[in-house]
Amino acid sequence: AAAAAAATAMSLTSDEVNFLVYRYLQESGFQHSAFALWNESYLGKSSVMSGSVPPGGLVTLLQKGLQYVDVEWHVTEDGLEVDCDDTPTLLT
Amino acid sequence: AAAAAAATAMSLTSDEVNFLVYRYLQESGFQHSAFALWNESYLGKSSVMSGSVPPGGLVTLLQKGLQYVDVEWHVTEDGLEVDCDDTPTLLT
Amino acid sequence: AAAAAAATAMSLTSDEVNFLVYRYLQESGFQHSAFALWNESYLGKSSVMSGSVPPGGLVTLLQKGLQYVDVEWHVTEDGLEVDCDDTPTLLT
Amino acid sequence: AAAAAAATAMSLTSDEVNFLVYRYLQESGFQHSAFALWNESYLGKSSVMSGSVPPGGLVTLLQKGLQYVDVEWHVTEDGLEVDCDDTPTLLT
Q: Considering its fold, how many domains does chain C have in total?
């Protein structure tokens, strides 16, 4: 049932991703990158703007993504835990 | 047990996040933002570089993050599904 | 008389200088710099835009500026040439 | 003689022009453009760097370039002033 629920989870729009990234760039002190992205992705014309992206939103969501991957690796579809000590790596 | 496994999931380094973002900017055609980030975050000096970030890596991981949030919302710690039709929104 | 004429020469507006620089950046292949300047200096909203800056306009004008400096160094106000082999340097 | 002197005036190297432009961008508050140009033109590896470009160097030299053009318009090769009230325009 959890898997079923997950399967219907909402998707992200491009504007939402861009805005998460933009906020990340700002918060990381990458001002030039943030400026460029603002102009390249036309964020100023996006309706996402007024929304309140929580501080650290991009990293928080990425971490949850990793947790999801971790569960995928270590739990079967029946909910049984796999006896496995491997940790998923980000870049593969 | 799944929750326990998730709780020990690895964390992301700054370089890894920056590289995921850099690849996203490139793949999205935001060449100026990618150029700026490359220089601002000193990615050229990072050891992450040679790693192979899969295409669409950032968005894929963000989507999994959303799925994780969705599970958090709709499944209790005991693994029971909550009767709830709400969908978590990204920007809150 | 020449000096008098020169003294009344027109001045450059900020937009004109920015546009000369923008074209220079473009022609030099500095696409990221050109993109940033376009956005930072609001050139898109400038009335200078439609004007036709000749190719190489910035460098041509800088070269003429150097020639003017050279004349200033080697010709007196009376139009007499100074016996001097020095060449003015750009960066002083 | 003045014309002859001018004809032998030094020329500008690419690095010199880039550095004049870089300083102009900085002084004008175009920080993102300056950052991009620094990286795109590899100014950090240029030997011009330590040189002291005077404040406002680019605009000063452009203005002198305009004065030179003005003289070209209004003075014959014999040094006689032409009876002409036209002012040269920058962008043609």
A: 1
- Structure token digits, residue A26: 């700002």
> How far off is chain A from C35, nearest CA to CA, in Å?
8
The answer to whether A62 and B61 have CB atoms below 8 angstroms apart is yes
A3, amino acid identity? A
Indicate whether C3 belongs to any domain: no
Same domain, A64 and A85: yes
> Are the CB atoms for C38 and C47 separated by under 8 Å?
no
Residues of A within an 8 Å Cβ radius of C: 32, 35-36, 39-40
User: Is D17 contained in some domain?
Assistant: yes
Angle at CA of residue C45, ends C42 and C49, nearest 5°: 100
Q: Inter-chain contact D2–C61, Cβ cutoff 8 Å?
A: no
Q: Which of A39, A40, A45 to mutate to test the interface with C (most CBs of C within 10 A)?
A: A39
Best probe of the A interface among C33, C39, C40, C45, by most A CBs < 10 A, is C39
Q: What is the ipTM of this complex?
A: 0.80
- Which two tokens mark A87? 């940790």
The per-residue pLDDT for range D9-67, each reduced to its tens digit, is 467 889 999 999 999 999 999 999 999 999 999 998 887 765 668 889 999 999 999 98
Please give the residue range of the domain that contains residue D22.
2-74
**Alpha helices per DSSP H over B1-92:** 2-7, 14-27, 31-40, 57-74
